[in-house]
Design a protein that fits this description.
This protein is α/β, with parallel strands linked by helices. The protein has two domains: 6-54, Helicase, Ruva Protein, domain 3 (Orthogonal Bundle), CATH 1.10.8; 77-170, Dna Topoisomerase Vi A Subunit, Chain: A, domain 2 (3-Layer(aba) Sandwich), CATH 3.40.1360. Helices cover 44% and strands 11% of the residues. A four-stranded parallel β-sheet has the order 4-3-5-6. A two-stranded antiparallel sheet has the order 1-2. The protein starts with 5 loop residues before the first helix and ends in a 5-residue tail after the last helix.
């Protein structure tokens, strides 16, 4: 990148630190910013700083928010006795887009991964137990990703909450809409068979 002026090379270097952004995309973004008006560039810089200064974790569910508690925890129309446990804040957005879930959330900020040195104390497990123990929760839906770590985390949560008599469920897994059976792997088809339901 020695052929770019130093500020542009630095901007490309910073942009390429983003996940999924390679040098080519970072270069396109840098030149887009360069062509933008000063006001647009200042607005982008100000927005990035505002995110770093104003965003914090909700003290109740650990979602990212600019107010505490977050708007979901404050919403009295939501079911208070059902919690959906997810890996990260981005998972909340995915579930909310469906419009199907009207309960509360608990964000772990990761999954159990002994290989990476992530144990229960590195996640929000103790606060999940406190939430279940302190209030009348009838169901905890575990919505971790269907990978080895997500499955291990789901099993750990089920075992952890068993003494409280709360119902612990897992999101259904299996075949996506619009897919063709012949193209799915055995694990996906197996999960679909296991999670079958009446029609």
């Amino acid at each position: 990148m020695g052929f770019f002026a130093k500020p542009i090379a630095q901007l490309i270097g910073e942009l390429s630190k983003f996940p999924g952004i390679g040098e080519k995309t970072a270069t396109r973004l840098a030149f887009h910013i360069l062509r933008s008006s000063r006001e647009d560039a200042e607005s982008l810089a100000g927005t990035i700083l505002a995110v770093k200064e104003k965003i914090r974790l909700c003290s109740k569910c650990f979602n990212i928010t600019d107010e505490d508690p977050c708007r979901i925890c404050k919403d009295t129309r939501r079911q208070q006795d059902v919690l959906c446990v997810v890996e990260g804040p981005q998972d909340v957005a995915v579930i909310e887009r469906t419009g199907e879930f009207r309960g509360g959330y608990h964000i772990l900020h990761g999954v159990l991964s002994p290989i990476n040195g992530i144990g229960p104390d590195d996640l929000r497990m103790k606060s999940l137990v406190r939430r279940v123990a302190d209030r009348d929760v009838r169901e905890v839906i575990v919505a971790t990703n269907p990978k080895v770590e997500g499955e291990a985390t789901a099993l750990y949560i089920a075992k952890l909450l068993k003494p409280f008599g709360v119902k612990v469920t897992r999101l259904a897994q299996g075949l996506p809409m619009g897919g063709e059976l012949e193209y799915f792997d055995a694990a996906t088809v197996s999960a679909a068979i296991e999670g079958r339901r009446d029609i």
